[in-house]
Prior knowledge:
Blueprint: E1 14-19, E2 24-27, E3 30-32, H1 39-50, E4 54-59, E5 71-74, H2 78-89, E6 94-97, E7 104-106, E8 128-130, H3 134-139, E9 146-151, H4 157-167, E10 172-176, E11 186-193, E12 196-204, H5 205-221
Parallel strand pairs: 1-4, 1-6, 4-5, 6-9, 9-10
Antiparallel strand pairs: 2-3, 7-8, 10-11, 11-12
Helix pairs in contact: 1-5
The chain binds cytidine-5'-triphosphate and calcium ion (CA).
Cytidine-5'-triphosphate (CTP) is lined by residues 18, 78, 97, 99, 101, 103, 131, 133-135, 149-152, 164.
Amino acid sequence: xIAFFQPKRLAGKKLLITxxxxxxxxxPVRGLTNLSSGKMGFALARAAAEAGAEVTLVAGPVHLPxxxxxxxxxxxxxxxxxxxxxxxxxxxxxxxxxAAVADWxxxxxxxxxxxxxxxxxxxxxFALTENPDILAGVAKLGSRPFCxxxxxxxxxxxxxxxxxxxxxxxxLIVGNIGAATFGRDDNALLLVDAAxxxxxxxxxxxxxxxxLIAEIATRLATP
Length: 223
Ligand code: CTP
Ligand code: CA
């Protein structure tokens, strides 16, 4: 019922959201990933759909149900996430990058499982190569949506968030206040944009998602 009575502040708007971790394979049985649960991105997709938006959710490997009314595209790697997002981005009103995209991937993918070497060959070493920056890629598009990034920092949140706002040339950066947000059901957020800073105090992720969607709707209405 609460969902039904959310104001339809995003009616007629299209939102594209990335969520979860990415998984970068090393060989057929191993890979690089991180502890992102996808909960914040899925909560935002739900809150945006409640607000009347047409929502596309590009999700890395997570174990979460698809929110009602949301179109979901599952991907594994950062490159696949990039390939799913970029062709759709110009048609969107808003892009929200909540995904914890792996910054690097193994430079080569072993066709077969890497075996321990006998003797003193030691462990294998891996060369890494940088993944494309999905958020910066969308922000660079000619006709681009309102772009929102997330910043996971372990120190100096406000300073790093503002640096990301400027470096990626996005409209809003949302920082997680306090460590260890990954996997938790609650969070506290710091909103950083050209106008200043604003804190959304600690709450469950769905409540915060609804507050953040309201903040985004306000910014869309008053550009
Ligand atoms: N992001 C992205 N594609 C990447 C890396 C990050 O879209 N390859 C997005 C994230 O979804 C997030 C924002 O960029 O919205 C910031 O991600 P973060 O990891 O904090 O920033 P980086 O630029 O990767 O810098 P660093 O990890 O060194 O802090
Ligand atoms: Ca990163």
